[in-house]
């Protein structure tokens, strides 16, 4: 008798892919779901549409604020966490609409082409990487100008390879963290909190609202960069050749 269990990891992947494609996509994109779930899915979609339209400046005045340099702005403390998350959601929703063969998103202030979502995500990624009034990359280690006094205990203390003496918690703070020098260790890949609503940024270790590096700042950008890299490897596309984005009125 043939075993009902898969014999290899490849069969498991095929099974998971089958259920993902046949259940998830059919369920959400094609509308083939139980009628009792319809109102829940419509509510999720309504909230998603509302947020995306607000980011695009097309939500009848209830829009996400922007800095003069074009950065989406929510609040002073670690604003780039919202920028990176918004860029990721814009990228995912772009994929969602394309998979549903929906060419436009109907916002209160008029229809928006799906490629405009990815264009906005790209402008936010460009802003983070240095296309901003400060001409600074807010990803540490990327480009010629980036934060060198990141609010990070490990990065601000000398490497064990250079000094193998004992450094206690208090000593690490008093002797190293409080110094005004550049960090002895470059926290490559970390995205800091970023500038304020006027695109101003002060590279100071004590300025934790702007220089603290968080994993949830960087994590969403992995998906955004992956998508942009995928498109860049294909034949030239208008979506990646844009250098600016025309926002709607606030």
Automatic annotation (TrEMBL):
GO molecular function, one term: cellulase activity
Every Glycoside hydrolase family domain range: 36-224
Entry-linked InterPro entries: 6-hairpin_glycosidase_sf, 6hp_glycosidase-like_sf, Glyco_hydro_9, Glyco_hydro_9_His_AS
Keywords annotated in UniProt: Carbohydrate metabolism, Cellulose degradation, Glycosidase, Hydrolase, Polysaccharide degradation
Entries under Pfam families matching the protein: Glyco_hydro_9
Active site (catalytic residues): 151
EC category: hydrolase
Catalytic activity line of the entry: Endohydrolysis of (1->4)-beta-D-glucosidic linkages in cellulose, lichenin and cereal beta-D-glucans
SUPFAM superfamilies: Six-hairpin glycosidases
EC numbers: 3.2.1.4
One GO biological process term: cellulose catabolic process
Sequence similarity: Belongs to the glycosyl hydrolase 9 (cellulase E) family.
UniProt xrefs under PANTHER family: ENDO-1,4-BETA-GLUCANASE
Name of the molecule in the record: Endoglucanase
Organism this protein belongs to: Rhynchospora pubera
């Amino acid at each position: 008798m043939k075993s009902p269990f898969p014999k290899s990891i490849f069969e498991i992947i095929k099974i998971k892919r089958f259920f993902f494609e046949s259940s998830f996509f059919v369920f959400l994109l094609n509308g083939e779901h139980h009628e009792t779930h319809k109102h829940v899915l419509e509510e999720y979609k309504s909230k998603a549409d509302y947020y995306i339209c607000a980011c695009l400046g097309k939500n009848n005045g209830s829009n996400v604020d922007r800095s003069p340099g074009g950065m989406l702005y929510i609040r002073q403390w670690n604003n780039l966490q919202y920028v990176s998350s918004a860029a990721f959601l814009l990228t995912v929703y772009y994929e969602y609409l394309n998979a549903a063969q929906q060419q436009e998103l109907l916002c209160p202030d008029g229809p928006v082409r799906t490629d405009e979502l990815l264009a906005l995500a790209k402008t936010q990624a460009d802003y983070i990487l240095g296309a901003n009034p400060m001409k600074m990359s807010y990803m540490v280690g990327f480009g010629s100008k980036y934060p060198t006094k990141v609010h990070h205990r490990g990065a601000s203390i000398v490497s064990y390879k250079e000094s193998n003496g004992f450094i206690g918690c208090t000593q690490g703070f008093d002797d190293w963290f409080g110094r005004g020098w550049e960090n002895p260790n470059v926290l490559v890949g970390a995205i800091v909190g970023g500038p304020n609503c006027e695109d101003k940024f002060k590279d100071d270790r004590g300025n934790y609202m702007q220089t603290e590096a968080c994993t949830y700042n960087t994590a969403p950008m992995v998906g955004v960069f992956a998508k942009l890299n995928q498109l860049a490897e294909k034949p030239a596309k208008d979506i990646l050749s844009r250098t600016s984005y025309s926002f709607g009125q606030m």
